[in-house]
Every structure is written in structure tokens, then in C-alpha cells.
Amino acid sequence: xxxxxxxxxxxxxxxxxxxxxxxxxxxxxxxxxxxxxxxxxxxxxxxxxxxxxxxxxxxxxxxxxxxxxxxxxxxxxxxxxxxxxxxxxxxxxxxxxxxxxxxxxxxxxxxxxxxxxxxxxxxxxxxxxxxxxxxxxxxxxxxxxxxxxxxxxxxxxxxxxxxxxxxxxxxxxxxxxxxxxxxxxxxxxxxxxxxxxxxxxxxxxxxxxxxxxxxxxxxxxxxxxxxxxxxxxxxxxxxxxxxxxxxxxxxxxxxxxxxxxxxxxxxxxxxxxxxxxxxxxxxxxxxxxxxxxxxxxxxxxxxxxxxxxxxxxxxxxxxxxxxxxxxxxxxxxxxxxxxxxxxxxxxxxx
Length: 350
Description:
Layout: H1 14-30, E1 34-40, H2 51-60, H3 65-75, H4 90-97, E2 102-106, E3 109-116, H5 119-139, E4 150-154, E5 165-167, E6 170-172, E7 177-180, E8 183-186, H6 192-210, H7 221-236, H8 240-243, H9 250-268, H10 276-283, H11 288-302, H12 340-349
Antiparallel strand pairs: 1-3, 1-4, 2-3, 5-6, 7-8
Helix pairs in contact: 2-3, 6-7, 6-9, 7-9, 9-10
């Protein structure tokens, strides 16, 4: 399996996929390059997966026979439809990586990132890759939805031309924003659109909760606090590992403080004119801008990356599961039994 397949893989997830993608974009911006991000949609990838092709790919990759037989048994005389998320994309990731273009996948969502100095160079790099992907999909009886394919151009250059990117017979148009795995990415890479969207969702949730939580009746403070911590915070802090570094920006902090204060007033039954700090303290909640930065720092620590707040200190890194051999091929550890009674008798005689 490709290391760029992040869906349903041990020690990998949507946060890793988004973080890696944004880091690639930032590298291109530092080099003053034009970065193009394309999100490809596969029509009914789970429902239309071609099983004989999948088994053939496993055999070509010389996957352990026990695993091949296990997967084949799921497909034999089955009465329900079963799909392994992302299996059909692994061969594609390996092939496109050989072309020199960054590609990653989460289940059936494909993201392609290219960065070059000019629009012509981007056309030379991306159009062959998209042509290769289309042919790859045809061989495996899969259909790509060119109309649903999203693309965005990100650059710090003042003067530039939009590259002509073609997918089949359809020219891909560039938009101001693109949504990948629930994260809205804008051309300025300031994540204002994303934070605006998630805070609006939180406001709509507040309106529903407020109907059942009045000053003298309704939900008690502990239930409201539980709803806030388990529903509101995860909704807003999704992918904070990517955008947490901009949480202290004025506009974003204003939006986040608004949500914190609104729910804190509801939890502690305070007056509407109460301050943010007072309400947050009484409600025992942490302001969302600090929570976002906390999530971002914890994510980087888990990945073993250094932090500016901890200079000169090395962090323990987790071992990638891809560095371990298959369980069927691992060497059994030998061991010996110690005769404790004999040792005790020899000590007593001495």
C-alpha cells in the first residue's frame, strides 16, 4: 500500500492527509512558485469497484497469499455488497508518484498538487498526469466526474497566467476556494472561509440548543457544557492541526471568541453583557483560539516535529507501520526458562 493512502490506515488519517497537502503548498509558496491543487471525484468508487482487477493488482504486488485468500473469500458467494475503502487507488498512487507529481488519497478522494515557476510548466506536468489517471480508470472500469473536479491556484505572484488544465475533453476551471476532506482552502491560504463556515454551523447549533435552555428551566449547565465540549468544539476545531497557527489573527479570533462567549453565557446562565473571560471561567471552558493552537501543537508533537516553544529538545517519534514486516513473515522471538530453584540452592550453599 502506498504511504500516501491515508484512509483507514494505522497511524494515518484525514488530519495527516490535510497537513501533508498544506505543507507541500507552503513549500511551493516559499519558492515563489505557482501551486495548483486538484481534487478529483470518482463516480461511485465504492459501488463500482471492479473486484477481478483488485485481486489481480494484489497478485502483481506479490501480496502475501494468506491475505489474497482472505480478501477473495469475502467476494465469493456474497449476498451483500462489500467495499474496502481506498484499495482501488493504491496502484494509481504508485504509478503517478513515478511521474514526479505529488498525489495522495483518503479512501476514494484523490488530491493532486503541482508547483512550478510558470503556467506552461504546470500544463506540461499536470495534463499528462490527468491523461494517465483517465486511462488508469478506464482499464479498471471506473469513471471520473470531470464536472465535479475542483481546482484552485495558489501563488504570491502579482502577475501570472492561469494554466490550461484538461481532463478528457473538459477544461478544468479554477475557483476561489476548494474543499478537501471537509477543509475549505482559499487562494490566500488564510483559512478565513473555513473558519467562517464552521462558526456559522456552530451558531445554527446554538439556536437549536437555546430553545431548550432558558435561565430558569431546561437543560442544566453540565449537560450544556457536555454538548459544547463533545459537539461544538470538535466541529470548529476540525483540521485545527492545519489552520491552528492563524487562530490568533484578528478576524478569526473574533469569530472564535464569539462562539466561546455565546455558549459560555448559555452554560453559566450569565447576563448577555458579561465579558468573555468571566463567562469562560465560570463555564470552565477554554477559548477556542487557544484550543486551536493547542491542537496544532499536539499534532506536531505526535508527528515528532520540533516546536519553537521547546527549543533544543528532541521529541520521541512514532515508528511507521510501513517499516515493520508482515506479521506472517516476522521471525519468532526465542526465549529460555530460568531455573530459579537451582539458582536459589546454589546461593544458599555459598
